Amino acid sequence: MNRIQEKLQEDKKLLSIYFTAGYPKFNDTVTIIEDLEKNGVDMIEIGLPFSDPLADGPTIQESSTLALRNGMTSEKLFQQLKDIRKTVNIPLIIMGYFNPMLQYGVEEFCKKCEEIGIDGLIIPDLPVDVYSEKYQAVFEKYNLINVFLITPQTSAQRIGFIDSVSNGFIYMVSSASVTGTTSSFGNDTKDYFKRISGMNLKNPQIVGFGISDKQSFKEATEYSSGAIIGSAFIKHLTKYGVGTISEFVKTIK
After folding, report:
1. Is 163 among the catalytic positions?
2. Is residue 56 among the annotated active site residues?
3. What residues contact 201, with CB distance under 8 A and at least 6 apart?
4. Among 45, 119, 163, 219, the one annotated catalytic
5. What is the number of other CB atoms lying within 10 angstroms of the CB of residue 130?
6. For the chain: N or C, fewer Cβ within 10 A?
7. Which of 42-56, 186-200, 217-231 has the lowest mean pLDDT?
8. How far is it, in rounded angstroms, from Cα 175 to Cα 57?
9. Per the residue annotation, which of 28, 35, 56, 219 is the catalytic one?
């Protein structure tokens, strides 16, 4: 069983943290991953920086730009992570855009992920129908879970299709805006969480976008299995550095 699937079976609300590989400094990647696990984070999303990150707000965009300036590439990320499973046990997911994976070679990218112990991928600009037609067999060959995003505007029919080709969790985007732009959830968003929960999908949902503290984490997980924090964590790293990860996690759980 994939580590993501094992983690989802635990009887708890999961905290997943996103950060950009190679930020704040090029060699911070492994330190951040190890410290997040030590401080009780359940799952980690490692952002592969890209020059045109459409779904990301200004905080993550800026971290991506600086990581690229620091020299981060797909190959260098794989080199940094080659021994990560000697020290880290929790699920690791690479989140990035499809272009760098296409340039690397999709099968070669997936093969490399399996070799170093990556459990899944989140690719916001890879449509689910293209995935199911062209790439699903490759992902499954290398035991990789592909995580798809849904928004309040995603139709019930499409959510059903996403659910049918998924085998991990569904990334439930809290709003139609980019990351880092929401600070609390209104009634419409809470109704959306409740509506998706009521669909009784086979894959659990984890909420992303707009979670930054205990209150928003609690609201996001009322009808879901967990929540993802990205922009708030990157802001913390920017302001306080990588040696203060325990302080950040304490503000959430």
Report:
1. no
2. yes
3. 159, 160, 163, 170
4. 45
5. 12
6. N
7. 42-56
8. 13
9. 56
